[in-house]
Automatic annotation (TrEMBL):
Annotated HAMAP family: Sigma70_SigI
UniProt protein name: RNA polymerase sigma factor SigI
Assembly mode: Interacts with RsgI.
Function, in words: Sigma factors are initiation factors that promote the attachment of RNA polymerase to specific initiation sites and are then released.
Regulation: Negatively regulated by the anti-sigma-I factor RsgI.
Entry's localization field: Cytoplasm
Length: 241
């Protein structure tokens, strides 16, 4: 009943500016939370994403009718689509980066292969798959910033030796599957080194040296980044063992 009342209030807001202003104010938290989920990072009213999300919410009010079901579900969908369009537009104006497995799998001669670390032209992003991958990079990069690094730092800190990669894989798998370790990372933005060292028998030195790589892999494999996750197939295999 409450949801239906909200739906009818949305219809009234579309016809009355005063009601609309109050309706928007009441749902500011919903708008901000939706924007944060779509972009993958905390959004405030000072961010461009807030303005875009707000505009989309107002448009949702104007376009809404009862046949569309729950207003809130409809509004969140409109906001999500608008923000995704915004992200795509931003990507077009930035130097496009096509992920090479080298970012996560650094078993290569660094000098000889430096030129293939990144493809730097817009043309390399023509396919739909690459466009989706670019959006994933943009989104996950915002998450990485909360941990004090960026996506592009990974090329320098990814493990090279097979033995080290295997050790990191065990740490990553444990951090994803253990609720305590996962919560510590999520809340403190720090790796629970002692917990990981004890439960995976991995030397502290390896964990600390490859901290960024481990965190990045945990974030990607725990989130909705299917394209990037493909470059971490070896870790998925580690989790199955």
């Amino acid at each position: 009943m409450v949801l239906r009342e909200l739906d009818y209030l949305a219809l009234e807001a579309a016809q009355n500016e005063k009601i609309l202003n109050g309706f928007i104010e009441k749902h500011e938290t919903v708008i901000l939370n939706t924007a944060s989920k779509v972009t993958g990072h905390y959004i405030t009213k000072s961010d461009d994403e807030w303005s875009i999300a707000l505009s989309a919410f107002v448009q949702a009010v104007k376009d809404y009718d009862l046949k569309k079901g729950s207003f809130l579900k409809f509004a969140k969908l409109v906001v999500k689509r608008r923000l995704i369009d915004y992200i795509r537009q931003q990507v077009k104006y930035q130097q496009e980066i096509s992920v090479n497995p080298v970012v996560f799998d650094s078993d290569f001669d660094e000098d000889e292969n430096r030129h293939i670390q990144f493809a730097v032209t817009q043309r390399s992003m023509e396919s739909q798959k690459q466009e989706s991958l670019s959006i994933e990079i943009h989104t996950v990069n915002e998450v990485f910033k909360d941990f004090g690094f960026t996506f592009y730092d990974l090329i320098k800190c990814s493990p090279k030796a097979a033995k080290t990669k295997s050790a990191c894989g065990k740490v990553i798998a444990y951090c994803i599957e253990d609720p305590v370790a996962a919560n510590v990372l999520k809340i403190t933005k720090l790796l629970p080194v002692k917990i990981l060292e004890k439960n995976t028998n991995t030397p502290r030195k390896i964990i600390e040296r490859h901290r960024k790589y481990i965190i990045a892999a945990v974030v990607i494999l725990s989130g909705e980044y299917p394209g990037l996750a493909e470059y971490l197939r070896n870790i998925r295999e580690e989790r199955r063992q």
